[in-house]
Amino acid sequence: MSSTATPPEAAPEGSALHWRALESLYASAPINALFASELSITGEGTSRIVFNIDHKVYHAAGAAHGTIYFKMLDDAAFYAANTLVTDRFLLTTSFNLHFSRPVRSGPVIAEGRWISSRRRVLVAEARLVDLEGEEIGRGTGTFMRSHIPLSGLDGYARTFAPQG
After folding, report:
1. Model confidence pLDDT, tens digit, residues 13-62
2. Which domain holds residue 111?
3. What is the C-alpha separation between 127 and 111, in angstroms, rounded?
């Protein structure tokens, strides 16, 4: 007896491992100890970072400082692009940032999306949305393949270590 049902497709094991390793790499970066944030690789060429805005990241006028916008937009775009590169760490070579509106508190989501690539250079964009789904910022970055192997970075390599 044969079945005509088609099983759902899963992400290739190699891609899923790479994505989990990128999430681990993000979590291992010392800078991220300063921000309550979590990266999720949502698919090839996409990423999502959820973080919280509170008074610790305010400028003098009582709203989130632009550095938090830049950091989260750059990270979301970077990790979206790095889903397509499995051997090397990428470096940000430029980033254009547009502020749409201030945010004072609550959860914010940075959504990254790969746009294009040529040889060593990749382009990705990201946007920040608040809890109501309103866009508060947007950015586009270019990223270049470095000479740094991902496998040599502890935060990345931990994902491939045998569990025991």
Report:
1. 779 999 999 999 999 999 999 988 999 999 999 999 999 999 999 999 99
2. 13-159
3. 5
